[in-house]
Structures are given as C-alpha cells and as structure tokens.
Amino acid sequence: MSVGKIIVILGAPGSGKGTQAKRLQEKFSVPQISTGDILRAIAKEGFSLLAEQIRETQAAGKLVSDEILIQVVSERTQKEDCKKGFILDGYPRTLGQAQQLEGLALSQEREIKVVNVDILDSLLLKRLTGRRSCPSCGEIYNIYFKPPKSNNICDHCSEFLIHRSDDNLESINKRLQEYRKNTEPLIDYYKKHQCLSSIDGTQSPDEVFELLCQIFQ
What we know:
Elements: E1 5-10, H1 17-28, E2 32-34, H2 35-45, H3 49-59, H4 66-76, E3 85-89, H5 95-107, E4 112-118, H6 121-129, E5 131-133, E6 140-142, H7 169-183, H8 185-192, E7 196-200, H9 205-216
Parallel strand pairs: 1-3, 1-4, 2-3, 4-7
Antiparallel strand pairs: 5-6
C-alpha cells in the first residue's frame, strides 16, 4: 500500500466491509481504526472533558457530534502506527464528516482512497438475518452461507451461537434506510473527487479481498 494513504471502505450494513478491513489491516500492516471502539474506550477510561461529553451523549441515546468525531480521529491518526496509513471503519458516514476528513487529509498530507462494496439488498438481508456468532471465540457463521457443523453450536469451542437482537428484518430495514439517506450520497461525492472505485460485493469474500488488494497496492 502506498505510504500515508487513508483507506475508506463504503458499503451497506452486511456488505462485509468490516471483515475486509480487518484482512487489509493484516495484509498491509496498517491499523483498522473504528470510531465506535475509540469512543467506547474514551468513555470508560477517564475523567476528561471529552470523556464526560461522550458519556452524556451516549446516555441520552444521541449520536456524538461531528466535531468530536473528527477530534478523536485526528488524535488517533497522529500515533506512530498510522505513519504508513490507516483504514477507517465506520467513518465517514455523512457528507459533513467526509468534508471534515478532507480537511484532516490535507493537514496530514495524505491521500484518501475510497472503495464502495456494491451488493443487492436481497443478499444483505440473508447475510444479516442469517448471521450467528460465538460468544467465546468470536467466530462468525451464517445459516445460509456458512452454517456450523452442528445446529447452533460453534465448530471450534462447542459454545451455543448468538443471534444479535438487532439482526431482524425491522431493525435491518431501519439501518438500510439510514444508510441510503446519510451514507450512500458519499458515493457520488467521492466520484466527483475522482478517488472512488467500486467492486461487486456479491463475489466470495476471498474474491472481494483480492480486488481490494489490487486497488490499494
């Protein structure tokens, strides 16, 4: 991967972008940065003004402001492990956040490279409603595409698999509507900035990963 790149992977919930981001992290030895993980860690760890603001926002069931998000992204990406570049997970989600990221990239003298993982809604629904996870080892299964050998039992540690409470049709449709409204417009935004590639997310995870590696090489 070219030194200093900011990698952004777009895609609807269930497109597999999180899994691919982890594989790219291992392939290119650059950190996968999740804004959600950072916010949860800050909220738990201390008594700073920022931590208190995040805790209050989360307690009220609201979204953290764009100003706080770009602040935590800026601070995290100045660390030593980001020198070669980094992969953003779950950010940006809106046009406002994308514009703030442009400013950050300019100040850090980095290039933004974006890939959209395109996939049909019908396949997304199967991926999400069929998803099961092991609470012990974290292995992910799918009753349609990757079922466990024994019904609802992890192949590795024999734990009962968990079906996330929000992996139901009503919740998934709400998440898709939010994605269409807030995040999908980023596709056109990055097209205009000539930094977007699109790939077919209906292919196997290995095929998608190979294409991502070619794009980011």
